[in-house]
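Hi V.,

You were right to ask for the full record rather than a summary. Here it is.
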Amino acid sequence: MEEKLFWLGFYLKERNILKTIKYFSEGIEIIDILRFKNYSEDEIKRLAEKELEQAERLNVKILFIKEDEFPLELREISYPPLFIYLKGRFQNINSIGIIGSRKPTSYGKEVAYHFSKRLGEEGIGIVSGLARGIDSIAHKGCLDAKGYTIAVLGSGIDIIYPPENKEIFDEILKNNGAIISEFPFFTKPRKENFPIRNRIISGLSKGIIVIEAGKKSGTLITAKWALEQGKEVFAIPGSIFSSQSEGTHYLIKEGAIIVTSPEEVLNYFGWKKDKALVNFKKEIDLSEEEKEILSHLSTYPQHIEEIFLKINKPSFEILSLLTELELKGLIETLPGKYVKLKKI
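Predicted structure:
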């Protein structure tokens, strides 16, 4: 507990998140840092205790990186936050980040709502930043599906920004979602906070879906964090005449995965709910050849050439069997790839 107090007090004293993380990652004892800085241990503890008292008043948890409740996903990213201010609760479920323009077109709004609602219906958590535009719509779509959503703030957790999103803020908590921030109380939503915040959005997500982003959009920073963290980046193509899609198209050129439906994301990760699928063992007769093909397929998309290499049969015969399996509802085709819809 004392280590948490000293790090929290130092964090509050310095007001420099990345610098504090650097000290911690270097394994330097906090007591040695305080002495080097000539900081009074009593003053540092008082700062921390005051912050914890404020957290209790506002029903907020301040989680230290060494505590069990601290999200595992964030421990493993580059520059992991030392502290997370949490209102609501974390759920250990698969989550995807949805981000994009603060000034989306009507097309962007429709796409964001469609994707977030559909993914929410499948039990996938939606992570976004509660900002105007795509972020707000992503939270709203998930909430309308009675799904789980996390809002990551670029301000203190006691400051709702933009203020017009108070209704969404309250709705997230009412639906057992989570509001989080790594910024201390009373921190205003300064411009420099958001690039730092973005690594947490990607850190909590299995992948990021980018829906409309300008050429110099901050959304591209989140995509960059995601790539550095080894996360998948999905991009939804837009109009070639829209400046709001210039950043999205740039990501596609750089290797982002093009998606045009929520099902493509669900299939990519193997997240389709089994209840929507058939139990082939009980209800569908399969030949030995079809069973062999299925045994080599995965709930992750595989390129057709990869399947040819695994199975010792002529390619035309494999393609014929794949077609039969698709007609029986056991696999789905993507451009040049195949995915199994149920773990066997």
